[in-house]
Amino acid sequence: MGALIPLARESVSRTTLPGSVRAPGAARAFVRTALTGRSAAEAFTPVTLDEQSIDDAVLLVSELVTNAVLHAGTRVEVVCRLQPGEGPGGEGGPMGPEGTPGQDEVPRDIPNQPGIVVEVADLHPASTVYGGPETQRRGRGRGLQLIGALAESWGVTYHRTRKAVWFRLDAERAGPGFDAVPTTALGRELRFAETLAPAPPREQRDPTADWVDRGGPSFLAEASELLTGQLDENMVAALAGQLLVPRLADWCAVWLTTESGQLHLARVWHSDEHRIGALRMSLERYPPPTGLGSAGTSWPWPGIADSQGTGGSAVCFPLIAHGRSHGALLLGRAGVPRMAEGVVRLSEDVARRVAQAVATARLYTRQATISRALQRRQLPMSLAHIPGVDTAIVYEPHGEGQTVGGDFYDLFPMGDRRWCFLLGDVQGSDPEAMSVTGLARHLVRLLAREGHGVESVLNRLNQALVEEDAEAAEIDGEQSRPRFLSLLYGELEPDPAGGGAHCTLASAGHPLPLRLTTDGAVAPAASPQMLLGIDENPDFHADSLELEPGETLLCVTDGVTERRNGIRQLDDDDGLSDILRSCVGLGAKAVAERVRRATHNFSAEPIDDDLAVLVLEAVPAVEPPRVP
């Protein structure tokens, strides 16, 4: 016999996946990429890797990884080998994943074909996912049944620290010099159908049960992935309906509990959309009782649910999470007197995931509602109008849901043609920080309206913060954390005759305000001073300036100046001054928007701090109309 000439080199790809519900999807994507990428093309040249072999490999690895992750919760390693073979007539059978003959070889006189070898290794040495009697009894050995139906050879390899299941699929020859062999794929399909075909039933059987046996674990993993992270309970109900119909049921309904403990019908879904309205009306008359048990409960079949009048089976599941009822899930299957046990069990698993998703969404909604209520109390509803001064504010609290953070602002009148403005930042963004925010804003208003000037307001506010920290330390002990406050506070006195405004202001540990003149010059408008809440006896002083018509005062929090792009900050090398310098001739709102946009564009990463911008622009005085 002549020498064997390999078609191409072997290609090996491997990955390690965590024990999470996302692992099966990641395994499917990994194997498909390994079999369709450049390395696969080079390994099988000039033989074409057929789509049937790729689909079979993806199906089998999905089942094996699903078993390992869902039932053992362990990390798995997936190895995909492309073996090019030795040409027609070559000797040697299929090889195992380590390059040695497989445990269940096909006869050696079969021509050695190109093939795919996939190994799924359980990285937990004590795992018994693949094989034991208990596993087979619970139906978790379905992956091995599929392997027996589709693979040319397979086996279980035991290592000192892990156990692996591997399988080999022959790739169909479709390249130059080979004849296509359609009978191989046909034989594989026939064996697959024979393996999964149910035994002839003695009584009527729900056909959905067969699908549950094959695809239940994968379906459950996909359902978990879709429901996780949903922050709206109505969206959770809608997703539940579309997940369950028609795969597990012909129709379903989701009730959600109200704040008073009653149930309202949130979602009805039917495989025949024309029947949804009538089914909803029927179900609304008889909601489930609030005391449903933890398992599925048989439910009377609503006649409107099927068009043939043959009836069916309906089961109701409570939506319970963290010991609390959040509603009920009702499923109906037409044409069967009783749902199969596997269908009920899988539906119960889905109901638990729906309940957890609803509970999570409600917790998020409750927190967002509290934050909005706090925001209404911590921030002014609107900015005061100042004659002769154009004003603008940008406020973007950090965090999902746009809750109140540590930044705050205010602009209010105090009589005698004077207005006060402030921009502050409390360390942190938790409820304690928000309480300091409310204290500071309301105390500044009270002190200003009692006639205290800029220096006096800062000194008295500092005293209040120091006393509050001392009281918190006595109550909370070592768990108490001092709350420091940076604040820019000032007073404006517009000039109604000549335009512009006289400004008195002070910056206590805050980014310094910048003044933009009409000729484009930019300079700090105040001197730096210490944070509020650090020293019991500070000596705050105020700075004064005349804001001429057309000049702009820009005030920002450190969410702007400390915006990062790698190791660089936005205000490095006077970056904020350069941005303001480009705003000559713009109104207050346009300046605020340009600073906001420049802050976002400084880095591709999301902003990780609160952002606040206050702009005050003096405008020319309006001449009164002349009397003829």
TrEMBL record:
Superkingdom classification of source: Bacteria
SUPFAM superfamilies: GAF domain-like (SSF55781)
Keyword Zinc: no
Key words of the record: Hydrolase
A UniProt-annotated Pfam family: SpoIIE
Record field: compositional bias (Gly residues): 86-96
PPM-type phosphatase domain ranges (all copies): 389-618
UniProt xrefs under SMART domains: PP2C_SIG (SM00331)
Residue span of region Disordered: 82-111
GO MF annotation list: phosphatase activity
Keyword Hydrolase carried by entry: yes
PANTHER family for the chain: STAGE II SPORULATION PROTEIN E, STAGE II SPORULATION PROTEIN E-RELATED
Name of the protein: SpoIIE family protein phosphatase
Annotated organism of origin: Streptomyces malaysiensis subsp. samsunensis
